[in-house]
Amino acid sequence: MSDEFKIEIVNPEKSFLSKEDVNEVVVPAFEGEMGILKDHISIISFLKPGIITIQAKSGEEKYYVEDGIIEFKNNTLSILTSYILNLKDIEKNKLQELLKNAEEESNKPEISDQLKYLADQKVETLKSIN
Asked: Burial letters for 46-63: b for 16+ Cβ neighbours within 10 Å, e otherwise?
């Protein structure tokens, strides 16, 4: 019996990633880090800024996301996000730029509590990437 399931990540421009050999995915849901294994109950959840970790037969992959919606059903995890980067491709200067933007966003005097929370999540996540 295989314990693998399928993941599809889509962003507005295109299908970003599709894999059939996934064993576990950890996503940064608003409720906290959520681990998804084969035969997980059906869910729909929102993502906050953070790291998606995919454990697959072919190895581990990590992606930075800023937002998104996940749906898991029939052993397919679908992730729709407007902004996603593969951590292994991300350049140091791009990281610095994202961090600077997130810090500026977080420090705006007129920012709402919710937007400040999201900006702080970005800052925290980006600082943890090395």
From this structure: ebbbbbbbbbbeeeebeb
- Listed by start position, the domains of the chain span 5-86, 90-129
Give Cα separations from 83 to 25, 51, 64 (angstroms).
Answer: 18, 12, 8
Name the token pair of 8.
């599809």
C-alpha distance from residue 104 to each of 68, 69, 91 (Å) = 22, 25, 20
CATH placement of domain 5-86: 2.60.15.10
SS3 (DSSP) at 118? helix
pLDDT by residue, tens only, the chain of 130 residues: 689 999 999 998 888 999 999 999 999 999 899 999 999 999 999 999 999 999 999 899 999 999 999 999 999 999 999 999 999 988 999 999 999 999 999 999 999 999 999 999 999 999 999 7
DSSP state of 66: S
